[in-house]
Amino acid sequence: MAIVLMVLCVPGSALAAPGAEQLEKDIQFVHRMVNESEAAKKIASDTNEEAKTLQQQANDLLQQARDALKAGDTTKTSQLLGQAKLTMFQAMRSVGGEVKSQKQQDDFQRRWESADSLLQAHNRYAEENKLNGDAVKTAQYVEETLRKARQEFASGKRDSASQMVEDAYLSIKLSLTRLRTGQTVVSALNFANKEEEYRYELDRNDTHKMLVQVVLKEKLDANPGLARLVDMNMKIAEDLRSQALDQAEQGDFDAAVKTLENSTGQIIRAIRAAGIYIPG
Question: Looking at the domain assignment, is residue 3 inside a domain?
Answer without folding.
Answer: no
